[in-house]
Design goal:
single chain; about 500 residues; alpha+beta; 2 domains
Length: about 500
């Protein structure tokens, strides 16, 4: 009976995950293309690795290697679309929702669990934090959800996870570390401190030490596999230089941080930190549960307060959504409750930027336009580069691959990156220069290398990309037009008019 119930729930959540990713991720086949430059960087590097290029040594971006291994797999599934990413997103989101449901059941046996996890899943993919889909944070969610469930289970029952589960926790920690190491440090680091204290208070410190050994084994195995890849390709120095040194000391994201450049915004973030921590203190959950949440959730929030934050970073916080079940654990759902949940789902869907853009016909098309030009005029020397620009997406549907290591200009202000692009262009091997200009992201002089004299403009397109809001509340209030004069006095959202240029070398 339990097996049938579990199987039915797994199927339900799989179908839900497939439906939500299909509707709200721009990697879905119903969208013409994912317009996000980061997603294109991931796919471009995945395609390049599939064609034999060595990560970091021959193709450059500072994100973690496992993220690019996933996109290499996606490129093997579908070489000229995001369909492979779309399938990975469904699997990822399925695991995230399943362990969210299991977390709810640690605190409640109410029949409201299933409807609530469905609503939480919808709120996750319709939020601004989900962005266009295909973020590093998105692929970390299932691993964090599994770990959070196992930690809460220990805190609630006092039963330590066995060797297999402890190994999996470490294995997943290793995966997250090699996707984006700061996520691993903030979540697992804060959790570990809380768990050590809880194990000590329960007299389980010695047993906890043994379990921790299996966690380390899991991390070592993943790390060993990653290091083996770079050792085989004689690229260990490149791994250290790009993934660690560059991220710690060069990368800031300040050219596109999505935050107002005012001194008082740190206090806004501190206020948001306090507000978001209120549910932890207000709930009647056990003291040790609160301590664990403070250790992991609080550490992530604290890092967001003092570091530059992109909207999609906040997606990590949705892994704690199932804990809101403590406020509804004795609730018996009726028609009114279901009606309210449906209303929330409709409003969230109606405010989702991706689906609204698709339905009103304003979805981005510029990348497809310039790709068509390159494909129509393809010759043996039709090499193309994102010149002094983020990744325009030119490599996805064209037959081209990057001609050099630095195929786009990232948020790392390094003159050697610009110099490599100049050398490539001056070599005479590059036929097309693709360039994307979004003022809010590329207003810095670093992104303004002059177009060489022997290239002429063959395409220029422009569109209003989207608003950039500083908080979710700001976004919702901005949709009420009569409040805009008041909001504008305090803080206007930045608009992102987007221009795309394509230049061709003179014959």
């Amino acid at each position: 009976m339990i097996y049938k119930k579990t199987t039915g729930e797994l199927i339900l959540l799989f179908l839900l995950s497939a439906a939500l990713v299909t509707l709200f991720s721009t990697c879905s086949p119903i969208y013409p293309i994912n317009p996000w430059d980061d997603a294109h960087v991931f796919m471009t590097i995945g395609k390049s690795m599939l064609n034999g290029k060595i990560l970091y040594k021959e193709i450059f971006d500072q994100k973690g290697p496992i993220l690019f291994f996933l996109h290499e797999l996606a490129a093997a599934i579908s070489y000229s679309s995001f369909f492979g990413v779309y399938l990975l997103e469904i699997l990822s989101f399925w695991c995230f929702s399943w362990y969210g449901l299991k977390t709810m059941r640690l605190f409640s046996a109410s029949s409201i669990n299933i409807p609530l996890i469905c609503l939480l899943s919808l709120l996750t993919v319709t939020s601004d934090a989900f962005y266009y889909g295909d973020s590093a944070e998105e692929f970390c969610l299932p691993f964090i959800a599994y770990t959070l469930y196992q930690m809460l289970r220990f805190v609630k029952t006092g039963e330590l996870p066995g060797c297999r589960k402890s190994f999996l926790i470490g294995f997943f920690a290793g995966i997250v570390f090699w996707i984006k190491f700061n996520i691993c440090v903030f979540f697992w680091g804060g959790s570990l401190l809380a768990l050590i204290y809880i194990a000590y208070s329960k007299g389980l410190l010695q047993q906890f030490g043994k379990i921790l050994g299996w966690v380390i084994v899991g991390m070592v195995i993943v790390s060993g596999a990653v290091l083996a890849y770079f050792a085989i390709h004689h690229a260990l120095n490149d791994l250290i230089d790009v993934y660690f040194y560059t991220n710690l000391f060069k990368y800031s994201g300040t050219s596109s941080n999505g935050e107002p450049d005012v001194w008082w915004f740190i206090f806004v973030k501190l206020a948001i930190l306090c507000i978001l921590l209120l549910p932890v203190f207000l709930t009647k959950a056990q003291k040790n549960v609160k301590l664990l949440i403070l250790g992991s959730y609080g550490t992530i929030l604290l890092s967001f307060t003092f570091l530059t934050v992109q909207f999609y970073y906040i997606l990590l916080l949705y892994v704690y959504g199932p804990l809101f079940i403590v406020f509804f654990r004795r609730m018996k759902p009726d028609a009114k409750i279901y009606g309210l949940m449906v209303a929330v789902a409709i409003v969230a869907s109606a405010l989702n930027w991706n689906i609204v853009s698709l339905l009103n016909g304003s979805f981005s098309h510029l990348t497809l336009d310039i790709t068509d030009i390159v494909n129509r005029n393809e010759t043996e020397d039709s090499k193309v580069i994102n010149f002094s620009s983020y990744d325009t997406g030119i490599y996805l549907k064209s037959c081209q691959l990057p001609p050099g290591r630095h195929f786009f200009i990232s948020n790392i202000e390094d003159e050697s990156i610009r110099e490599e692009q100049r050398v490539l262009v001056n070599s005479g091997d590059i036929k097309y220069l693709a360039r994307e200009v979004i003022p809010v992201k590329t207003s810095h002089d670093y992104y303004d290398m002059p177009i060489p004299y022997n290239y002429h403009l063959v395409y220029k397109g422009e569109e209003n990309f989207r608003y950039r809001f500083y908080t979710l509340l700001h976004k919702y209030l901005w949709n009420l037009e009569y409040l805009r004069p008041i909001l504008g006095f305090v803080m206007n959202p930045e608009t992102e008019p987007r221009q795309m240029f394509l230049y061709e070398r003179e014959p």
